[in-house]
Amino acid sequence: xxxGIHPEYHQxxxxxxxxxxxxxxGSTAKEIRVTICSNCHPFYTGQEKIIDTEGRVDKFKKKFxxxxxxxxxxxxxxxxxx
Length: 82
Fold this sequence. Notes:
It contains 2 helices and 3 strands; from the N terminus they run βββαα. It is of the alpha+beta class. The protein has a 3-stranded mixed beta sheet, with no helix packed on it. A hairpin with a 5-residue loop joins strand 1 and strand 2.
């Protein structure tokens, strides 16, 4: 490694603003503040909710029901009819 071209590497304290959790990590920054972390993120805590207020998922399933996802055992080919 060349001397004088690399930034200093610190043992950095990362602080979550949402839940006031702190943990250590290595970084070139001396202090890091994040708005959300794995302790308070809904995906990791199991509080994630899927909101479908307009029924888009049901509308999609109704529109494309039975069209896709099924495979037939015999291919349909115009040359087979001869």
